[in-house]
Write a structure and sequence with these properties.
elongated, Ferric Hydroxamate Uptake Protein, Chain A, domain 1, 5 helices, 3 domains, five-stranded mixed β-sheet, seven-stranded antiparallel β-sheet, about 10% helix, single chain, Immunoglobulin-like, mainly beta
């Protein structure tokens, strides 16, 4: 029985440990014209876009607080007997923000309203956390190469670009939109990434999974110092990403961004024949709106990126000595030592084209492939002590990203959010002279899925259960093309 009670206590404590990830709070003190606190005043915070409202009352010190609030725009009103109604519009709450909003009431009829239209001062006087929020305006307006919002993390003081071979694997082990940043001198792979409060870390290399594309992203916050103990396992900062949601009004967009040599101006000093080989198309759209006004809302978005380029490379090729040894091998020829790297490249050993075939060996009729001798006898002989072959190969990639979200008000004190994020990156196989007859470049196929169920139940203004369940799966397939 004691063990059962212990397990129950641990389970009930879990929501407290994950409290308010990505959400915010609005708090303040209500006073009269002389500065005395007003007790038992009715305070209401209403979401501008959805009409969802939360209410509370001030305590004996005239203090009120709204916890676990979604980052969006609110109207905050205060009612108290003998005073005019106080109403503050355009109160913008950011992700992970503790916003202080004090209200000074004016004596008068409660039916009269004192409306304050200026934006509330975004000041946090209740926590020591140092954070910065990258708002939707900056995400949509600032230049973004490749439309990767994760790169805007570098706008935060203390965040620097820190490439690392162990974490920055490129398109071979994780998504190309993954970033390797360090915060305040910590390691690159010690940043916690959260999507709507659920884990969003690529556990293979401890970098981020792809951020939603900018049109589906509301904002994200970066906490760098003195953040809550619930993030104690990460010494390098906390990034909370918040997706967009539907409102009472239908909204959406269609877009396409193109990079193509046909649209590029020619540099005056460039070689006349030089041309940018990069071709990138990014297109998609979003739509959101109400299913049931003031109750149920949806949002969905999709983006596809198609990328084409030429990748440059070079490779050592058989020199004069290697060619003579190949052609002279046989009972009446002069055996010579063959470079195993060259042997692997052109396949001189029948049935063995891997580096594990052995060290350098003496050529003889039983080991040299006749087709290799034929090819070398009819080709040109390279010159120089270290002959190399320079080449370019096509680089063809595609990246699909989609997100869907449903927000539902179950009751006055219950709100439910369902969200699903899907990403897929494909790097197509192409002929690679580095491998020649062995096989072409392999296909890189990476798929990531992330789902979230989030329910908030308000038992009282001071007792809130904020529960989240998230699922994340990533599959990376790479190897020879079939």
């Amino acid at each position: 029985m004691k063990k059962l009670l212990l397990v129950l206590c641990v389970v009930l404590a879990v929501p407290a440990l994950t409290y308010a990830q990505g959400l915010g709070s609005i708090a303040g003190t209500v006073t009269d014209p002389q500065g005395a606190v007003v007790t038992s005043a009715q305070v209401k915070a209403t979401e501008t876009g959805t009409g969802i409202a939360r209410s509370t009352t001030t305590d004996a010190q005239g203090y009120y607080i709204f916890n676990s609030m979604r980052p969006t725009e609110y109207t905050v009103s205060v009612d108290a007997p003998g005073f005019r109604t106080f109403s503050q519009t355009k109160v913008t709450l950011l992700a992970d923000q503790s916003l202080t909003l004090n209200a000074k009431l004016v004596v008068g009829n409660p039916t009269e309203v004192v409306e304050v239209t200026g934006n509330a001062v975004a000041v946090d006087t209740s926590t020591p956390t140092i954070r910065q929020v990258i708002e939707q305006e900056r995400i949509s307006e600032l230049p973004l190469n490749g439309r990767n919002a994760a790169t805007l993390t570098l706008l935060v003081p203390g965040a620097v670009n820190s490439p690392n071979g162990g974490a920055d694997q490129g398109a071979t082990k994780t998504f190309p939109s993954a970033v390797t940043y360090a915060v305040n001198g910590a390691r690159q792979n010690t940043i916690s990434y959260q999507l709507d409060g659920g884990n969003y870390v690529d556990e293979y290399t401890n970098v981020n999974q792809p951020f939603p594309f900018p049109d589906a992203l509301q904002e994200f916050s970066v906490q760098t110092t003195n953040y809550s103990a619930q993030y104690g396992e990460n010494a390098g900062g906390v990034v909370n990403v918040v997706t967009r949601s539907g409102t009472n009004a239908f909204h959406g967009d269609l877009f396409e961004f193109v990079r193509n040599p046909a649209f590029n101006a020619q540099n005056f000093f460039a070689t006349p024949t030089a041309q940018d080989a990069v071709k990138r198309n990014q297109y998609g759209g979003t739509i959101g709106g109400p299913i049931i006004h003031n109750k149920t809302y949806f949002f969905a978005g999709y983006q596809r990126t198609e990328f084409r380029n030429l990748a440059l490379g070079s490779q050592k090729v058989p020199g004069q000595t290697d060619i003579n040894n190949f052609l002279n091998a046989g009972p009446f020829g002069t055996p010579g030592v063959i470079d195993p790297a060259v042997a692997k490249m052109i396949g001189v050993i029948p049935g063995c084209n891997v580096a594990a075939c052995g060290a350098a060996f003496n050529a003889n009729a039983g080991k040299v492939d006749p087709s290799a001798k034929f090819a070398l006898s009819g080709g040109s002989i390279p010159t120089g002590s270290n002959p190399t072959f320079a080449f370019s190969k096509p680089d063809s990639e595609s990246f699909d990203s989609g997100m869907g979200r449903l927000d539902h008000t179950i009751g006055k004190n219950d709100n439910l959010t369902l969200r699903y994020e899907y990403d897929r990156f494909i790097k197509k196989p192409v002929f690679n002279p580095l491998l020649l007859v062995a096989y072409t470049d392999g296909t890189f196929n990476i798929t990531a899925q992330n789902a979230l169920i989030h329910e908030t139940h308000i038992f009282s203004p001071h007792f809130i259960n904020d529960a989240r369940t998230s699922f994340s799966r990533e599959i990376a397939l790479r190897g020879p093309s079939p």
